[in-house]
Design goal:
The chain is α/β, with parallel strands linked by helices. It contains 14 helices and 13 strands.
């Protein structure tokens, strides 16, 4: 079987890129796999790609690249949804190249990995192939305008795959897709090439983009209550982003310069997690929670806000980590302090986390995708019939509403006239 995975930009750094490459590697054990990158901005990918996986870039976006001379390079996209936040990065040239690739593809399965790319797949992907949309962001993280743009296209696909059961339920409730299988398959996280943490180092680690939604300022505030009680413990925050200066100012204002530090971006992050005894997540929302699984794979328990949607499906509270209310600084500090004070319990929780994280091994996640491919192939006729019946019911409903409205207008007296005249 030939499988193609469509990425926004395989040459960058991000969770979707990493998980897509993980899945491609696992599927390559049994299938022919290629990753199609809508664009490229550098010569080689930042993440190491399995040599069995073919990489197909569509448009070189470098100003001195060969595609920059094409007149379509400067034209705005017409096919990528306007409400998608990456719309400004898409050109008419990417539209054309994506359509050419998809229309000529001989893949048996094509998987898109972000909303705008999924629209390309719906518009131009061959109907003989199984066409699957992955959603790496929560349904409710999309604007109403984008959801309205997506719905007609998603209804033509074979499946929509979310990373959590909770988000799949939201899609089924808020975006009904007759004939389209809507389900959850979590991201895979391979076993790291480092020894598990011993759970003895006085270090709390955290990682992610330094943006407001990750609430690193809440974590810093919580740590300010820990530092006086445990002056030997350190907080290390890994990542880069727009909030870096503001967070550094907060660290200095709270007198934490000697114990809390912004460490910059690290890849692979597991090497740093293995040096810690605890990992903290303070986010307001997580579509999945890659850093949680990455920490657990290093034998490190995670103290996380119980935010929508991923942490509650990954962490078993009190067994593999701790869940605390979102936005509650005191609860976050208390949970961290309890584990700092209980080394045997902390190490036992780390061992349980390490065992639980095997759920996210790439092989079983790939197997779940293979079972989905089989199910979609065998149910094509039934799903087509379900879609047809749903369209017929919708048309009938619209006709009834129009007829009812017309009858009401006929029975309503004209303005200024007399009833029964």
């Amino acid at each position: 079987m030939k499988i193609a995975l469509l990425l926004h930009n395989a040459y960058g750094i991000g969770g979707t890129i990493r998980t897509t490459m993980n899945l491609a590697t696992a599927l390559a054990d049994r299938h022919e796999v290629e990753i199609v990158s809508m664009m490229r901005h550098r010569e080689t990918p930042r993440f190491t790609l399995d040599p069995r996986v073919r990489l197909v870039p569509l448009v070189d976006t470098r100003s001195d690249g060969p595609d920059a001379k094409d007149p379509l390079f400067e034209e705005d996209s017409r096919d990528f949804p306007s409400a998608e936040k990456r719309h400004h990065q898409y050109s008419r040239l990417i539209d054309v190249r994506a359509a050419e690739y998809l229309r000529g593809s001989d893949a048996d399965v094509i998987i898109g990995t972000r909303p705008g790319v999924n629209v390309y797949l719906a518009r131009f992907g061959p109907r003989r192939a199984l066409r699957i949309a992955q959603e790496h962001l929560r349904h409710d993280a999309h604007s109403k305008k984008l959801l309205a743009e997506l719905a007609p296209y998603y209804r033509t696909l074979d499946a929509v795959v979310t990373t959590t059961e909770a988000d799949a339920a939201v899609y089924r409730a808020k975006m009904p897709l007759p004939g389209v299988r809507t389900l959850a398959i979590p991201n895979s996280v391979p076993e790291p090439a480092v020894e598990p943490s011993e759970g003895t180092a006085p270090v709390i680690a955290a990682a992610g983009r330094l943006v407001r939604g990750k609430r690193f300022e809440l974590l810093i505030d919580a740590f300010s209550e820990i530092a006086p009680k445990h002056p030997d413990w350190r907080l290390r925050i890994y990542g880069g982003g727009a909030e870096k200066e503001r967070l550094q100012e907060r660290i200095e204002r709270l007198g934490l310069s000697g114990s809390a530090a912004l460490m910059g971006s690290y890849s692979p992050i597991e090497e740093e997690f293995a040096k810690a005894s605890l990992v903290a997540v303070a986010s307001d929302a997580e579509s999945f929670g890659m850093t949680i699984v990455e920490a657990m794979r290093c034998g490190v328990p995670v103290v996380s806000t119980d935010c929508p949607l991923g942490p509650g499906e990954i962490i078993q509270d009190g067994v593999t980590g701790r869940l605390v209310p979102t936005g509650d600084k005191q609860a976050l500090a208390t949970a961290l302090l309890e584990l700092i004070d209980d080394e045997p319990g902390r190490r036992a929780m780390g061992a349980a986390a390490l065992e639980s994280a095997r759920t996210y091994d790439p092989a079983p996640i790939a197997w779940r995708y293979e079972r989905l491919f089989e199910e979609l192939a065998s149910s094509r006729q039934a799903r087509a019939w379900e879609r047809t019946r749903s369209l017929a019911r919708a048309r009938a409903g619209r006709l009834v509403r129009r007829c009812t409205a017309a009858l009401r207008r006929r029975r309503t007296p004209a303005a200024g006239g007399k009833a029964g005249a």
